[in-house]
Amino acid sequence: MFVDCGGVCVDCGGACVDCGGVYVDYGGACVECGGACVDCGGACVDCGGACVDCGGACVDCGGVYVDCGLACVECGGACVDCGGACVDCGGACVDCGGAYVDCGGVCVDWVERVWTVVEHIYSTLSIASVCGLWWSVYELWWSMCGLWWSMCTVMESAWTVVERFELWWSRVWTVVERVWTVVERVWTVVEHVWTVVERLWTVVGNVWTMVERVWTVVECVWTVVESVWTVLERV
Fold it and tell me: CB of 87 within 8 A of CB of 96?
């Protein structure tokens, strides 16, 4: 017998109920499941994630659960049965007789780890370690001195380059000054020659003026002579 179940009807042990959500038949009882539910020994639970059967009891799994003998343990990686308790050791678990910690994929007894830490502290505070520390500081000091000496050498080389550049520049400037002096002297000679030419031209002009004046006097005398000659002819 079926009734209208809001669009989805499921036969739950021979009877259908009004389904506001999604119902599944779990061993004679209908349970509303928000996600995916499994039959856990006759009783179903609402699983937000994924549930597994853990020795007869089902647990609501927010993460990932694995059946570890008698109890379910949440494992971030991969868990194996460790004598009743599962420990995530970087993806691999060993049989945990005591307390184990994650050591990069290998599980080590915490007592051994504590002893190792104590040994490291003792070795760090030992006389040999202190001497080694002083020797390291001494070597660091000499390395810094070597670095400073190298920097001084580089600065000296750079200063030598600057001095050579200054010497080269002074020589170039001396050559430029000498060339400029020669140019000035040549220009002075040219100016003197031009002055001489101007003065010669003045002398030539003065001579030409005197010649013109003498020629004018000669013309005047010639005119007087012609006039006198004309008078004599008439007489």
Answer: yes
